[in-house]
Design a protein that fits this description.
It contains two helices and 32 strands. The protein is mostly beta strands. The strands form eight sheets. The protein has a four-stranded antiparallel β-sheet, with no helix packed on it. Strands 4-5-6-7 form a four-stranded antiparallel β-sheet. A four-stranded antiparallel β-sheet has the order 8-9-10-11.
Length: 394
């Protein structure tokens, strides 16, 4: 019988992708400064990290210069058999927060010194993390169905928010300035979209979508004020003014709003569906992409919007003309691990500075692609198992 990997591993183990004093200790800043001074060229090079990508492997965190396609620095001290969830850069670019699963912690990296400066304990099975305001990171524990709110200055957990109904389940957070002090949480165990008070740190309501199943991917269109929530094999459409379900789309999957916020792509079982989300939600068209497309990153050139995919069933990144909905290029990005009998795979990607990054843990490399030229710069060698990549903006 073909099995599915549990939802946390569905999102993370396939992570060909996009982050303790003494190694192994949890919580607080104990030893953080000392540990930071022992990493990244002693953490004293002062070169900063702007324009670099952090590639996170089990025993090394490599800093990659995308222009040259090479590793320019490494953090290795205390990094031992680590596995990672999300890596999120603070709004000012000064810190990188990384979920590290093996010790149920969040690593805090100072991007100027290039060193680990804190290890913050959180609940087990962390995967996703969010930065809804300058002062906080919200890291989700899938085992507990709970967000751990971390102060970005003190590096301490200041609040916990129980989002899941049953105290467990893989979850995400949807937030936007249009929502004011509210946000929405999904949970793969709950047939509902949860309303979260971001100021009072509590679940205040649940928008019921059915009697069974769960919710996962999410998106919001500021043009029409609608939230989109994956619920089983459909996408529920929620009016954020009334918190009522107003529509349902017959596709479901990862959702990617275009930079102009007028269109949204949903990647559903190898097919990219493109919707107009300026008013009513109307499907523009769809394109089947061979190779199991997953994460989608956008780049605009000469008036054309391109989408770059991270494929799960082959080693390609496919480039799609999003205006014409046609494939225009395939670029070898290296291969990911495919656990035996796994039914679902995931591969993350990130972009920035005109570059597309996706890791290939089976090859131990990170692909760096020039998005303007649609060419591979290099498959940068890091180490086997490299899974998560984060880009530090200029």
């Amino acid at each position: 019988m073909v099995r599915s990997i549990d939802r946390r591993r569905f999102v993370q183990v396939m992570g060909g992708g996009l982050a303790v004093g003494a190694a192994g200790c949890l919580g607080g800043d104990d030893g953080g400064d000392e540990n930071g001074s022992e990493n990244g060229d002693d953490g004293e090079n002062g070169d900063g990290s702007a324009g670099l990508a952090y590639a996170l492997g089990p025993d090394t965190i490599a800093l990659v210069d995308p222009a040259d396609g090479e590793v320019v620095d490494e953090i290795t001290e205390g990094v031992d058999g680590y596995e990672y969830g999300d890596a999120v850069v603070t709004n000012d670019g000064s810190q990188l927060f990384v979920i590290e699963e093996t010790l149920s912690q969040v690593l805090v990296i100072d991007t100027e010194s290039r060193g680990i400066v804190a290890e913050v304990g959180m609940g087990p099975d962390g995967t996703h993390m969010y930065h809804p305001n300058d002062d906080e990171m919200w890291a989700h524990s899938d085992e507990e169905g709970t967000f751990y709110v971390i102060d970005t200055e003190s590096h301490e957990v200041t609040e916990t928010v129980e989002a899941g109904l049953e105290g467990e389940g893989h979850g995400k957070l949807l937030y936007h300035e249009d929502f004011g002090d509210e946000g929405y949480a999904t949970n793969v165990n709950d047939p509902a979209l949860h309303v979260i008070d971001l100021d009072d740190y509590e679940r205040t309501n649940s928008i019921e979508l059915g009697e069974e199943g769960g919710t996962h991917y999410k998106a919001y269109s500021p043009a029409n004020g609608l939230a989109y929530v994956e619920y089983g094999d459909v996408t529920a459409v929620v009016d954020t003014e009334t918190d009522e379900v107003v529509d349902e789309l017959d596709v479901a999957g990862g959702m990617y709003l275009t930079p102009d916020e007028e269109r949204m792509a949903i990647v559903d079982h190898g097919e990219i569906h493109l919707f107009d989300v300026t008013d009513e939600t109307e499907e523009i068209g769809s394109l089947e992409v061979e190779g199991g497309p997953d994460d989608l990153e956008y780049y605009e050139a000469d008036g054309t919007l391109y989408g770059f995919t991270a494929n799960t069933m082959d080693s390609d990144s496919v480039v799609v003309d999003m205006d014409e909905l046609e494939e225009v290029d395939r670029i070898d990005a290296g291969d990911i691990e495919r656990p035996e009998d796994a039914e679902h795979l995931h591969r993350s990607a990130v972009s920035g500075g005109g570059y597309f990054f996706t890791s290939a843990e089976a090859d131990g490399t990170v692909a760096v692609i020039d998005m303007a030229e649609r060419e591979l710069i290099e498959q940068v060698e890091v180490e086997n198992g490299v899974a998560t990549v984060a880009y530090i903006p200029e």
